[in-house]
Design brief:
This protein is mainly alpha-helical and about 180 residues long. The protein has 7 helices and 2 strands. Helix 1 packs antiparallel against helix 4, helix 4 runs antiparallel to helix 5 and helix 6 runs antiparallel to helix 7. The radius of gyration is 16 Å and the shape is globular.
């Protein structure tokens, strides 16, 4: 049976996913001038740990253990993923505290990590367009605004966009 999430649950997961993105080490510029998340594959593989076990409680425990093992080893040139791991584990605990149904806990974590992964890829793709920062800001506003408007929370758009632009700027300061 599929687990249904309501609009408010999705809104909370989406907002948490953007906060989680900001804990990922800022994207690095490659020799070709493209923004890229270091150790991106470690992040993309996180949801697999939630599928390892049929029992949802065992799957969540395995996910936490797997994440706690692999993420600290995903080093970048200047940072590592400990801040991301800390925030992600806080989000997992928040979900566990609110939800009593283990299957719903697993689904919410899947959505959180999935939205974070999709979001980081979408944001990096926008960063990689050969456009000005003002145009990047407008595209981010358009994308995030569309997501949040559907969920009835468009007042968060400017804050999220400003935070993402600061995240992007962190790479420029490193160079």
């Amino acid at each position: 049976m599929a687990v249904e999430l309501n609009k408010n649950e999705l809104k909370e997961i989406l907002l948490d996913s953007y906060e989680l993105i900001l804990k990922i080490p800022s994207p690095e510029k490659t020799k070709e001038g493209k923004y890229e998340i270091p150790s991106r594959s470690k992040l993309k593989n996180l949801p697999e740990a939630l599928r390892e076990f049929e029992d949802p409680e065992a799957a969540v425990m395995h996910f936490v253990k797997s994440s706690s093992y692999f993420l600290p080893r995903a080093n970048t040139k200047t940072e590592n993923f400990t801040n991301y791991l800390k925030r992600m584990l806080e989000d997992v605990q928040k979900i566990q505290k609110k939800e009593k149904d283990p299957e719903k806990v697993r689904e919410k974590i899947k959505y959180l990590i999935g939205y974070c992964n999709w979001g980081m890829d979408a944001v990096c793709n926008i960063f990689n367009l050969k456009i000005t920062d003002d145009e990047i800001r407008n595209r981010l506003k358009s994308m995030i605004g569309a997501e949040l408007k559907v969920l009835g929370n468009s007042e968060e758009v400017d804050k999220i966009v400003n935070d993402l632009m600061k995240w992007k700027a962190a790479e420029s300061r490193r160079q």
